[in-house]
Amino acid sequence: VSLLEKFAPLAELRGALAASGSVPSIATPMDEVHSATEAIIDGRKVLLAGTNNYLGLTFDPECQAAAIKAVQTLGTGTTGSRMASGNYAGHRALEREFAAAFGWPAGIVFSTGYQANLGAISALAGQGEFLLIDADSHASIHDACRLSLATTIRFRHNDPENLARRLERLGEDAKRTLVVVESLYSVLGDRAPLRELVDATRRHGAMIIVDEAHSFGMYGPRGLGICAELDLLDQVDFVVGTFSKSIGGVGGFCVSRHPEFELLRLGSRPYIFTASPPPPVIAAARAALQRLLHGDDLRAQLWRNIERFTAAVTRLGYRTGSKDPGPVTALVFDERATAIAHWQGLLDAGIYTNLMVPPATPAGLNIVRISLSAAHSDAQISRMVEAFESLSKRLRPAA
Amino acid sequence: MADSADRVERVVREALKIACPDIGAVTGSTHLSSELGLDSAQVMDMIMEIEDRLDISIPVAAIAEAHTLDDLCASVRRVAGEA
After folding, report:
1. What does the pLDDT look like over A217-263, one tens digit per residue?
2. Of A389, A374, A212, A190, residue with least CA distance to A295
3. Which residues on neighbouring strands pair with residue A133, listed in sequence order?
């Protein structure tokens, strides 16, 4: 098999996904984007229900104004790493603001959410140390483990006892172990049993980092996430998050209750060897963070939308990937063809969602994922519900 | 350590059966990915089943080069200290 011949199965997968209609379900071309909830796809106006724009801040007027002002006053990019010429006042201020929001002494901003995991995890655990990661971890966590020289061991998804067993086997080495979990898993929308995972970690003297990519902004007091909601911030060691979801931009952060975390800047390759985020990105993120922290109104609207939508799909007989309603609703189908038919049917009805199929999904599941936003109006939620009511008559929800 | 080697192979085959229930005949040289069509998620599930049954933790790197059933058995034996 040559270098390129090994991609043949991917070509088959792409062909199968494209066969259902004129618009590809992966890398779907967005011709225009008009608002946090509306775009043009294949020449038609569609309602966006497959983004991570949970608070709808991509079009927030204050965030937009902050970005425009930053472009005009500071330029379009930094052209340098944080360790060189790319260490602007805005970057430093945003880090202080994130750390202050958590009441912690240390915070670092990364150029993407992917790099936040890569940079924090790969630097925190090195040679002779251990990483214990949830088996359903995001690719950025798996890649961070590859970059780290630590020994990586997986534990069963959302299984605190399985984690505890692995910590026990490590014996004294557990004290040189970083446990890596996500608070909300984005494919199925299921929450981690964080309290139990934190208990197991602390009982064995290990440290824990929690990725709040899909929960920061939507859960807990001031939207600080599920660790804060569960009052675990005095027990969790590091929280990592992204700007490309509730913050509505691009970038990532990691905060810690350990002041030594600041030293990671000198040892994290994904932090050092990349350009820092452009000024407009940082300016918009700073405005978005303040809006998020004072965004109880946005959270109230989002959770109203979640309750309405979840109640409707449950009533229609759809199987969901999680028993906990949340901003991500994964509709699970046994057959790939049924999932594809639903995705296409929704798009035909003017609603864009995400289609996810194996091997990108856990347990070989076929999924249509719906992401809700605070920017969705009551009328838009009604449109989604009506589309599912119509589809469920034509396609069996459980198949 | 013939008993241990046999036990490891038995457990690996049991785990394979769970990860891939419709599996046919498998020899030691059967390629897990190209011949059995196991994807990375199925291999991960299989490894965790082996870990639970043998009460060991298998580092991800320890099985990175395990392409066949024999490779996998050898890797597991090394981790279990039985090779």
Report:
1. 999 999 999 999 999 999 999 999 999 999 999 999 999 999 999 99
2. A374
3. A154, A180
CA distances from B62 to A346, A376, B49, B71 (A): 44, 47, 16, 11
C-alpha distances out from residue A148 to A22, A94, A235, B71, Å: 42, 27, 24, 25
A41-94 pLDDT, tens digit per residue, is: 999 999 999 999 999 999 999 999 999 999 999 999 999 999 999 999 999 999
Task: Decide if A166 contacts A153 (C-beta within 8 A).
Answer: yes
**pLDDT, tens digit, for every residue of B43-66?**
888 999 999 999 999 999 998 888
Exposed e or buried b per residue across A58-92, where buried means at least 16 C-beta atoms within 10 angstroms of its C-beta: bbbeebbebbeebbeebeeebeebbeeebebebbe
pLDDT in tens, A344-369: 999 999 999 999 988 778 878 999 99
Mutate to test the interface with A, among B51, B56, B67, B79 (most CBs of A within 10 A): B51
Rounded to 5 degrees, φ, ψ at A253 are: -145, 155
Report the alpha-carbon distance of residue A397 to residue A314 in Å, rounded: 10
Q: What is the ipTM of this complex?
A: 0.88
DSSP A353: -
Q: Write the burial class of residue A347 (CB in 10 Å: 0-12 exposed, 13-18 middle, 19+ buried).
A: buried
Backbone dihedral angles phi then psi of residue A187, each to the nearest 5 degrees? -75, -50
CB contact under 8 A, B61 and A154: no
pTM here is 0.94
Q: Measured between alpha carbons, how far is A312 from B25 in angstroms, rounded to an integer? A: 46
Contact A197, A181 (CB under 8 A): yes
Which candidate in B39, B57, B58, B76 is best for mutational testing of the A interface (most A CBs within 10 A)?
B57
CA distance A382 to A47: 12
Cβ pair A154:B40 closer than 8 A: no
